[in-house]
Design brief:
By secondary structure, this protein is of the alpha+beta class. The chain starts with a helix and ends in a 7-residue tail after the last strand. Strand 1 and strand 2 form a beta hairpin. The strands form 3 sheets. It has a 10-stranded antiparallel β-sheet. Strands 13-12-15 form a 3-stranded antiparallel β-sheet, with helices on one face. 18% of the residues lie in helices and 42% in strands. The chain has 5 helices and 15 strands. The protein is globular. The chain folds into 2 domains: 152 residues, Immunoglobulin-like, CATH 2.60.40; 83 residues, TolA/TonB C-terminal domain (2-Layer Sandwich).
Length: 256
C-alpha cells in the first residue's frame, strides 16, 4: 500500500509522523511517546483506521459527510449482517468513531467488502470499498490496548446495545466525573451478570471524548447501582450473561 495512507489518517486525527510499515497488510505506525498505534487503509476521499491511544481502542472512518454528535451508520462487512450502529463525531467533523470498536475492528481484520450508508442532509451517501485482510497490523493495535483480536473474532465482542433477553430492574446511575472538562459525553460498556441481577466485571468498550473519564465513571455506576432481571421480574438463571449498553451524559449533540 502507499505511504500516503498513514499520512492521510494522521492528518485526520492530528497525530505526529509515525514509524511506518508497508506491505500487503494494512499500514501500521506507532508513536511510543504518545502511547499511540494505528493500522490504516485509505481510498480516494475515504479512510479507515483502527487506533489505540493511551489504552483506548477506536475505529475511525474519515471522509464522511460533516456532522456533529451521534449518527446512525448502516454498516455491513463482507457476508455479515447489516448493522445500524451508533457512531460519534466531534463538532462539524467528517470523521466518525464507532461505539463498539472491538467488534467492528475484528470484522475488518478479515478483509472483504465494506458497505456503508451514511446520512447526508436529507439524503444518504453510500460507500463500498474492498478492505484487505490484516493478519498483523490490527492485531498489534489490539495488543497495545490490552485486547485479544482472536477473541473478538470469535464473537465475544459486542456489536450493539444488548441486554441478552433481560430488562433493567435498576438502570445504572453513574456520577458525572468531577474532573471532566466536557459538558457532554457517552460511554459504551459491557458487564457480566451475577445470580442476583447485579453487574460485575464491567469494562469500557469506548468513551467519548476519549480520556474524559466518562467510561470509568460509567463502570463504577454500573457496579454500584445497575441491576437486571428476567422479563417476568425474577432473578433466576442469569449468572454469567453478558449485557452491553451505552451511558449518556446529557445528550451528545452540541448547540451553538
Amino acid at each position: 500500500m502507499r505511504d500516503v495512507v498513514i499520512a492521510a489518517v494522521l492528518a485526520m486525527i492530528s497525530a505526529p509522523a509515525l514509524a511506518q510499515d508497508t506491505g500487503d497488510d494494512w499500514d501500521y505506525g506507532e508513536d511510543s511517546a504518545r502511547k499511540l498505534s494505528i493500522a490504516a487503509v485509505s481510498f480516494e476521499n475515504f479512510g479507515v483506521a483502527v487506533r489505540c491511544m493511551d489504552g483506548n481502542l477506536s475505529v475511525v472512518l474519515s471522509g464522511l459527510p460533516v456532522a456533529t454528535g451521534t449518527r446512525k451508520v448502516r454498516y455491513r462487512m463482507g457476508d455479515g449482517e447489516e448493522s445500524d450502529g451508533e457512531w460519534i463525531s466531534g463538532r462539524d467533523s467528517s470523521s466518525a468513531f464507532t461505539v463498539w470498536p472491538r467488534f467492528v475492528a475484528a470484522g475488518m481484520s478479515r478483509g472483504g467488502r465494506l458497505a456503508l450508508s451514511v446520512p447526508d442532509g436529507d439524503g444518504t451517501r453510500q460507500y463500498a470499498v474492498d478492505l484487505p485482510a490484516s493478519g498483523a497490523s490490527i492485531s498489534r493495535v489490539f495488543r497495545n490496548c490490552g485486547h485479544d483480536l482472536e477473541a473478538a473474532i470469535a464473537d465475544t465482542a459486542p456489536s450493539r446495545e444488548d441486554l441478552g433477553g433481560l430488562v433493567w430492574r435498576r438502570t445504572p446511575e453513574p456520577d458525572f466525573p468531577s474532573r471532566a472538562s466536557y459538558d457532554v459525553g457517552l460511554a459504551g460498556i459491557t458487564c457480566r451478570v451475577r445470580d442476583n441481577g447485579r453487574l460485575r466485571d464491567c469494562r469500557v468498550e469506548s468513551e467519548f471524548p476519549e480520556g474524559s473519564g466518562f467510561g470509568r465513571a460509567a463502570t463504577y455506576g454500573a457496579h454500584r447501582t445497575g441491576q437486571v432481571a428476567l422479563v417476568d421480574g425474577s432473578t433466576g438463571d442469569m449468572a454469567g450473561r453478558r449485557v452491553s449498553f451505552m451511558v449518556r451524559y446529557q445528550a451528545l449533540n452540541w448547540h451553538d
